Amino acid sequence: SVQEVVDWDPNTRSGHSRTAHFDFSVSVPNGTTVCLDIVQSRRELNEPGEPQLGTGGVVWMAAVGLARYLEHHFTSGLEDWRVLELGCGTGLVSYVAAALGASVTCTDTPECLAKVTVPNIEANATRLQGSVAARELVWGQTALEPAFGQGVNWWELVVAADCVYRSEHAALLLHTLQGVLGPGRKALVALDRRGREGSNAFLQAAGSAESGFAMREVDNAVEMPSGYRFVHFLLVELTRISEMD
């Protein structure tokens, strides 16, 4: 369950945890509970002159929802699965997938990886059944080399949570998904429902006939921190049906 040491204030409409540490417990197939400790880097905690991480330094609500969905949906675990996270930020979703046994590659900008992702991998690695590796991927700039040179059928699952804030992010995320997923492969994308232009733009683009994906809304009735309602985020599953030219 989500530990109530975290200050989730729905009145701020911030959608993210407002403390320096975020504790998250996940039940794994062997019957034990894995306790994750996520260190955040909020803007007000940054030292003068340090690079600003934008939205990547904190745990966002949609990431909690997606992490909880993985726990509840993959009850037999993700052992031997190869999972890719896009825009991982603190990496919560990646650590939950790895706790379930997956071999995970989590990706973000070099600044975010150095500031929050890698320190959190190091802090939680010994608690995970699977593995997590960090890799730089800047949407629209990093050469994808189909799925980092492994081919578009390499990744069994791609995940992304709350990482589409502006409309231009939508096209970049969709292009990246097209570059790392082959026909039949799936992505789970968690989006904020609360009127963000990026979320709406992504849904429109991914749901179009030209996207190369079949999109469906996933039941996201999963346990969330007190004060938040399921209606605040949307979880969609994208299945690749064709490769784009």
Strand content: 15-25%
Inertia-based shape? globular
- Terminus-to-terminus distance: 44 Å
- Extract low-pLDDT stretches: 1-17, 44-51
Main CATH class:
Alpha Beta
Structure description:
The protein has 245 residues and is α/β, with parallel strands linked by helices. It has a single domain, classed as 3-Layer(aba) Sandwich (Rossmann fold), CATH 3.40.50. 26% of the residues lie in helices and 23% in strands. It contains 6 helices and 9 strands, in the order ββαβαβαβαβαβαββ. The strands form 2 sheets. It has a 7-stranded mixed sheet, with helices on both faces. Strand 3 (82-86), helix 2 and strand 4 form a beta-alpha-beta unit. Mean pLDDT is 82; it is low at 1-17 and 44-51.
Produce a short descriptive summary.
This protein has six helices and nine strands; from the N terminus they run E-E-H-E-H-E-H-E-H-E-H-E-H-E-E.
What features would you highlight for this structure?
seven-stranded mixed beta sheet, alpha/beta, 245 residues, SAM-dependent_MTases_sf, Rossmann fold, 9 strands, disordered N terminus
